[in-house]
Design brief:
- Pfam families: SecDF_P1_head (PF22599).
- This is SecDF P1 head subdomain domain-containing protein.
- The protein is of the alpha+beta class.
- The chain has a domain of 76 residues: Alpha-Beta Plaits (2-Layer Sandwich), CATH 3.30.70.
- The chain has eight helices and 14 strands.
- The N and C termini lie far apart (55 Å).
């Protein structure tokens, strides 16, 4: 009887040891690779992108990972389990950030021909509860046709005219808002000092953006001249938020608040607190 017990105990020990070694060896490692959209990309630019992505991931709150260049791509190995859908934008987003003045929808529509096809392609909002900077709404499947029409019929000189920009996320009806922005940003990422999440443990955290000295002066003058008007924060050509400025802001700070989750604010913080990628990347499947 004892030999059987010894054999069973030995087998149990070996199975536990083998399982432990296997888990230790493989862990929860996940490897992701992003490919540069430029063939034979400059290795210096790849290395620069490598460092930017590494900083983004650390600002986001990740530490146990490795980033390295592999030919014309960058490979990221995570030693812990991650949500790839949550992480992938940090790897491929250009990281361009700007604050834009806006046009008023009612003023603009008076200048357009009532028969303009653009009106039939969009759901035009009614009522003062809708931001005056929004021209209209459209479903995801209709955005490409609208973009094509705008590109063909609303050509303006570089740096002039209207910049039509879609909202980052759809509204409660599943439609995206098309904003009317001035062509050039009034404030850019170069004028942002840093950003920090406030009240992270609350149900409604927010992101506080601190401008540099030069940015603070521009922000103060902009807020003073734009009281009652929307100012749009744009990240990678998508409007993240466009609140109405209610008063002159002398603190040199901008508060991003509202419907954002902790993960969304962490993403914005990571993008704002790191440089723009010098190359464009695509996530390899």
């Amino acid at each position: 009887m004892k030999p059987i017990i010894y054999i069973l105990s030995t087998l149990l020990f070996l199975s536990i040891f083998t399982f432990g070694c296997s888990k230790s060896a493989t862990g929860h490692k996940q490897t992701v690779r992003i490919q540069s959209n430029v063939e034979n990309s400059n290795q210096d630019l790849l290395s620069q992108s490598n460092l930017i992505i590494e900083k983004r991931l650390k600002v986001f709150g990740l530490n146990d990972f490795e980033v390295k260049n592999v030919e014309n791509s960058i490979q990221i190995t995570f030693n812990d389990s991650i949500n790839l859908d949550e992480i992938s934008p940090l790897l491929t987003s250009k990281g361009e950030v700007g604050f834009y003045e806006t046009y008023d929808r009612d003023s603009l529509t008076k200048l357009l021909n009532n028969n303009d096809k653009l009106f039939s392609l969009l759901d035009i909002p009614l009522g003062k509860e809708i931001s005056p900077a929004i021209l209209g709404y459209a479903a995801e499947q209709n955005k490409a046709e609208i973009d094509k029409y705008i590109a063909a019929h609303y050509v303006s000189k570089p740096g002039n005219g209207i910049r039509f920009v879609w909202s980052e996320t759809p509204d409660k009806n599943g439609k995206y808002a098309l904003y009317l922005l001035k062509n050039k940003p009034t404030l850019t990422k170069s004028q942002i000092l840093t950003s920090e999440i406030q009240d992270l443990e609350s149900k409604n955290p927010d992101l506080m953006i601190q401008f540099s000295d030069s940015g603070s002066l521009v922000w103060r003058n902009l807020s003073k001249s734009s009281i009652g008007k929307p100012i749009a924060m744009v990240v990678d050509n998508q409007v993240v938020i466009a609140p109405n400025l209610m008063s002159e802001i002398t603190s040199g700070k901008c508060q991003v608040t509202g419907r954002f989750s902790k993960e969304e604010l962490s993403y914005l913080k990571s993008i704002i607190n790191s440089d723009e990628l010098p190359l464009e990347f695509t996530l390899m499947k």
